[in-house]
């Protein structure tokens, strides 16, 4: 009877495996792109340089290999002979892949786990041990080797993961059948690489569950809608506040559910809040460039707000690349020698100096940029789904393979989590804007040159900015390293405050006072070195939002006024928030 059960399970598993292979084979053409080819060719060239260097340093390589062999024997002796319960290679505390107790208690899985961890450790030691390699080459080797090794983790396969094997036996393979259905759905909605769903596409409704702070669209052009949120207090601060989200994401990361919506919190504090909601571009928007986001985006939005409120200045806050756009708008006003239209500028996890791009920099070089430009020239845009996967793969175990296991191997339904829903609601980038970001900012760091970037008729010079600036970055940000954002914060000449929050690129910013989940650091002394700044910084528990509010209040009249009207005779209400642009989901038709 037991043999029949095992035989049935093996048959079921084989059928599922065949279906998975058929599904990948059916879709492999979609993933055969210039970008993927360029990454492959670059990796081959980098590994050729590595092996060339290794051939000239045989003693170094032999030492690493001997250490591996001795450790591998010790693993076997400890497990097989039960000589020592202490593992030869320990799992890092942050590594959750091997939490199931069977990885430790069962000899077979313990051996697999430790052998895998030893192999991983040895590979990185080999790369680091080779002298004479170009630092950029070595950095890419470490990054892409990590990607490859983590993809081969025994936790990613049913037969080498005790938790998955146990679950599959208990469910008679039903989990794999359910996982296959989810895989098919994800492949149909993926672009150049497999995009794994982190939450259900039907989990939330914009305007009801998230992006639900009451407001109105009071302006619309080819690239953005301007939303004016309705007041919730009897009086408001005189100076309005404009939020500039990144055009590579949707604005409602700052307007999630009511309890963690920054926009809702700001309105409740008495601010008159406006936000830009960028278009999700299609092929026909290919020529819209970075300059358009500055002039037809931020500069235009400021003019509309001035018309509605009658105020000559606004506060402005930009998130990520939205902050870079904002910084260029402030520099544009300064270069034009206009009366300052932006009273204060706040930058959330924003790079102005791109010399420290972090692991994103592994994708920034001539061969990959050429491949992306070739790919984008055909489409007219950089597909937001591909970009989303690239960012997820910067933290592959927690943001990619974890969901691969949960969705496809365990057959679980994705959790309904607002931030994950937003993360999966991708936005395209126009071909022109994407090329500018990669070449002029990330590759050549032109914003740091006094005449490196021209917007309209003037060159950007951040040193001419006298506007008070507030920079908030996060300690564990893997997209915009805080040491890099700190370097950018030293460029404007106006009064500058730098604050460092806890956690990462999203969670560290979306940290409302109601939860006070993460801490933050403040140091009024902006020294030249980021680490020295942190050494002298004062730690504060809780949300940084009240600190920012106090800073805003200090940079504006404290006078409270009657709420401004929604819209004006010139800019009438067009639709209720959240508008139409934010509702455009990928894939979108070519005629959006």
Question: How would you sum up this structure, described in words?
Answer:
The protein is α/β, with parallel strands linked by helices and 592 residues long. It folds into 2 domains: 2-182, no CATH class; 215-360 and 430-583, Rossmann fold (3-Layer(aba) Sandwich), CATH 3.40.50.1820. Helix content is 44%, strand content 11%. The chain is built from 19 helices and 17 strands. The strands form 4 sheets. Strands 15-14-13-12-7-6-4-5-2-1-17 form an 11-stranded mixed beta sheet, sandwiched between helices. A two-stranded antiparallel sheet has the order 3-16. Strand 10 and strand 11 form a beta hairpin. 40% of the residues are buried. Residues 1-10 have low confidence and may be disordered.
Short description:
The protein is an alpha/beta fold.
Write the layout of secondary structure elements.
Elements: H1 2-27, H2 34-55, H3 58-80, H4 102-105, H5 107-129, H6 135-151, H7 162-170, H8 174-188, E1 215-220, E2 224-229, E3 236-237, E4 241-244, H9 262-268, E5 273-278, H10 290-309, E6 314-319, H11 321-335, E7 342-348, H12 366-379, E8 381-382, H13 384-392, H14 396-409, H15 418-424, E9 429-430, H16 431-443, E10 454-455, E11 458-459, E12 469-474, H17 482-489, E13 496-501, E14 520-522, H18 530-535, E15 538-540, H19 545-554, E16 560-561, E17 575-576
Parallel strand pairs: 4-5, 4-6, 6-7, 7-12, 12-13
Antiparallel strand pairs: 1-2, 1-17, 2-5, 3-16, 8-9, 10-11, 13-14, 14-15
Helix pairs in contact: 1-8, 2-6, 2-12, 3-5, 5-6, 10-11, 12-16
């Amino acid at each position: 009877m037991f043999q029949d059960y095992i035989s049935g399970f093996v048959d079921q598993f084989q059928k599922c495996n065949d279906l998975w292979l058929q599904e990948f084979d059916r879709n492999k053409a979609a993933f055969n792109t210039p970008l993927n080819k360029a990454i492959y060719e670059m990796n081959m060239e980098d590994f050729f340089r590595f092996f060339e260097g290794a051939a000239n340093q045989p003693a170094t390589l032999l030492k690493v290999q001997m250490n591996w062999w001795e450790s591998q024997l010790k693993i076997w002796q400890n497990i097989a002979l039960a000589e020592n319960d202490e593992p030869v290679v320990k799992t890092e505390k942050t590594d959750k892949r091997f939490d199931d107790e069977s990885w430790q208690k069962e000899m077979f899985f313990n051996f697999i786990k430790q052998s895998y961890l030893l192999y991983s450790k040895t590979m990185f030691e080999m790369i680091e041990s080779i002298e004479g390699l170009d630092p950029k080459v070595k950095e890419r080797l470490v990054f892409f080797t990590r990607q490859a090794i983590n993809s081969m983790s025994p936790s990613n396969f049913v037969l080498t993961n005790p938790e998955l094997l146990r679950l599959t036996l208990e469910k008679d393979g039903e989990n794999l059948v359910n996982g296959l259905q989810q895989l098919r759905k994800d492949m149909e909605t993926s672009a150049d690489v497999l995009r794994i769903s982190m939450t259900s596409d039907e989990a939330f409704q914009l305007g009801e569950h998230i992006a639900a702070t009451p407001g109105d669209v009071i302006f619309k052009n080819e690239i953005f809608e301007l939303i004016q949120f309705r007041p919730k207090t009897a009086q408001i601060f005189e100076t309005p506040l404009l939020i500039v989200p990144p055009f590579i994401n949707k604005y409602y990361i700052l307007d999630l559910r009511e309890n963690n919506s920054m926009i809702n919190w700001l309105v409740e504090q008495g601010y008159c809040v406006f936000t830009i909601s960028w278009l999700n571009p299609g092929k026909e928007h290919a020529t819209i460039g970075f300059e358009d986001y500055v002039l037809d985006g931020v500069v235009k939005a400021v003019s509309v707000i001035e018309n509605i409120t009658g105020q000559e200045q606004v506060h402005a806050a930009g998130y990520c690349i939205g902050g870079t756009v904002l910084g260029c708008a402030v520099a544009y006003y300064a270069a034009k020698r206009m009366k300052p239209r932006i009273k204060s500028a706040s930058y959330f996890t924003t790079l102005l100096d791109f010399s420290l791009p972090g692991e994103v920099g592994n994708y920034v070089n001539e061969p990959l940029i050429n491949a992306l430009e070739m790919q984008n020239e055909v489409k007219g845009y950089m597909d937001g789904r591909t970009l989303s996967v690239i960012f997820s793969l910067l933290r592959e175990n927690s943001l990619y393979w974890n969901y691969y296991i949960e969705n496809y191997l365990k057959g679980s339904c994705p959790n309904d989590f607002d931030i994950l829903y937003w993360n999966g609601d991708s936005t395209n980038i126009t071909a022109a804007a994407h090329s500018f970001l990669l070449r002029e900012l990330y590759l050549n760091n032109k914003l740091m040159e006094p005449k490196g970037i021209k917007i309209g008729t003037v060159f950007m010079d951040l040193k001419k900015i006298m506007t008070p600036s507030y920079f908030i970055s996060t300690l564990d940000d893997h997209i915009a390293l805080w040491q890099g954002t700190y370097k950018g914060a030293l460029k404007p000449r106006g009064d500058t405050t730098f604050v460092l929050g806890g956690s990462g690129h999203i969670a560290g910013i979306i940290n409302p006072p109601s939860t006070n989940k993460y801490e933050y650091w403040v140091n009024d002394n902006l020294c030249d070195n980021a680490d020295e700044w942190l050494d002298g910084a004062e730690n504060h528990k809780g949300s940084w939002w009240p600190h920012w509010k106090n800073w805003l209040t200090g940079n504006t009249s404290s006078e409270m006024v009657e709420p401004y009207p929604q819209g004006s005779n010139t800019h009438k209400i067009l639709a209720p928030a959240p508008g139409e642009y934010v509702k455009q989901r990928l894939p979108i038709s070519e005629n959006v």
